[in-house]
């Protein structure tokens, strides 16, 4: 949820964070991210505020769209500090972002550099967190004698990659490249909604590429950034969600085709039906964004009316319940 969504306030946002943890239903809390692309508070600052108000909930960013314009050394110390403050509860979800021209220019990056900066940045941050002193001479970043202390509490501190390429646009090879990055660089995978058969193909690729690298995926998590609006009046749920999208994204996004598989809306039974489809196709960590002005009311209704209708499977990290964005 963005504190600048219609009707939302920072106090209401933090109240929702506290409620999420005290409910013992939502096992993690997530914030969106950009720097100057959208009018919102900075994600690490907000996660730090959430860390001070919680004790058990994991804290993540879904996803850090500004990752390609953030310097890895600065981000490494900021995120290590967050992991220390939260006593090892952070999840760094990263992506290449949308390549917003103004944001890229402001920080001296180019749209075509995003994938390269993502890959080099992840590898460099992992080295900074693991090694005493780092020397690095890469394509985008140079460090000499870089020493970051303290390190994160978690070793390794989890980094997840969010990516949902369109096969019609990037082709089979583009999908394979994206899933290989997930399989070789990430501790978890974040997706938007895709048809079930397409999602299974992507999971199979991740598993295949991980085997090639000898990586153990036993604790690998698969998350969906899913949209939810619970209302007995299906049309009212749809209209409120569309208003939310128009303010949060832009008019016309998401498409009607995407809404069908990405927005669980209407009566509890309809919401549960789509969420269950996500779970059944292999999602271990559903991250739910309530597309409503009334966040607490939606969260309470989810617990009361939707959650009992779901068949939850125990994930490798011990989680059995959805999370909230």
Structure overview:
45% of the residues lie in helices and 17% in strands. Strands 1, 2, 3, 6, 7, 8, 9, 10 and 11 form a nine-stranded parallel β-sheet that branches. A two-stranded antiparallel sheet has the order 4-5. Helix 6 links the parallel strand 6 and strand 7.
Secondary structure topology:
Elements: H1 10-23, E1 28-31, H2 43-53, E2 58-64, H3 72-85, E3 90-94, H4 101-106, H5 114-130, E4 134-137, E5 142-146, E6 159-162, H6 167-185, E7 188-191, H7 196-213, E8 221-230, H8 234-248, H9 256-262, E9 263-266, H10 268-280, E10 285-290, H11 295-306, E11 323-324
Parallel strand pairs: 1-2, 2-3, 3-6, 6-7, 7-8, 8-9, 8-10, 10-11
Antiparallel strand pairs: 4-5
Helix pairs in contact: 2-3, 3-5, 6-7
- End-to-end separation: 5 Å
What oligomerization state is this entry in? single chain
Mean pLDDT: 93
List SSEs in N-to-C order: HEHEHEHHEEEHEHEHHEHEHE
- Rg is 19 Å
Decide which structural class fits the backbone. Answer: alpha/beta
Largest sheet entry = 9 strands, parallel
Strand content: 15-25%
Low-confidence stretches: 1-6
Question: How much helix is in the residues?
Answer: 40-55%
Shape call: globular
DSSP strand tally: 11
């Amino acid at each position: 949820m963005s504190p600048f969504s219609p009707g939302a306030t920072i106090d209401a946002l933090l109240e929702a964070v506290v409620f999420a943890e005290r409910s013992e239903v939502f096992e993690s809390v997530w914030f969106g991210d950009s720097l100057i692309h959208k009018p919102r508070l900075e994600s690490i600052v907000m996660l730090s505020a959430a860390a001070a108000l919680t004790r058990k909930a994991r804290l993540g960013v879904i996803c850090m769209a500004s990752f390609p314009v953030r310097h890895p050394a600065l981000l490494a110390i900021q995120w290590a500090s967050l992991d220390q403050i939260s006593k090892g509860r952070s999840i760094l979800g990263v992506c290449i972002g949308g390549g917003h021209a103004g944001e890229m220019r402001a920080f001296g990056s180019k749209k075509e550099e995003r994938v390269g900066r993502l890959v080099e940045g992840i590898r460099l941050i992992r080295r900074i967190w693991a090694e005493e002193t780092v020397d690095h001479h890469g394509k985008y970043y140079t460090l000499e004698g870089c020493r970051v202390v303290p390190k994160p509490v978690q070793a390794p501190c989890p980094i997840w990659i969010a990516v949902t390429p369109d096969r019609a646009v990037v082709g089979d090879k583009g999908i394979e490249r994206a899933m290989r990055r997930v399989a070789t660089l990430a501790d978890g995978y974040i997706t938007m909604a895709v048809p079930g058969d397409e999602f299974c193909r992507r999971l199979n690729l991740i598993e295949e590429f991980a085997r090639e690298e000898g990586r153990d995926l036993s604790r690998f998590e698969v998350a969906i950034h899913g949209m939810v609006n619970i209302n007995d009046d299906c049309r009212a749920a749809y209209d409120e969600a569309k208003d939310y999208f128009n303010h949060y994204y832009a008019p016309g996004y998401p498409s009607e085709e995407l809404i069908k598989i990405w927005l669980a809306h209407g009566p509890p039974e309809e919401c549960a039906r789509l969420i269950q489809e996500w779970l059944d196709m292999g999602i271990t960590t559903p991250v739910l964004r309530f597309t409503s002005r009334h966040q607490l009311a939606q969260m309470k209704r989810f617990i009361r009316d939707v959650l009992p209708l779901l068949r939850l499977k125990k994930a490798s990290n011990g989680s059995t319940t959805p999370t909230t964005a």
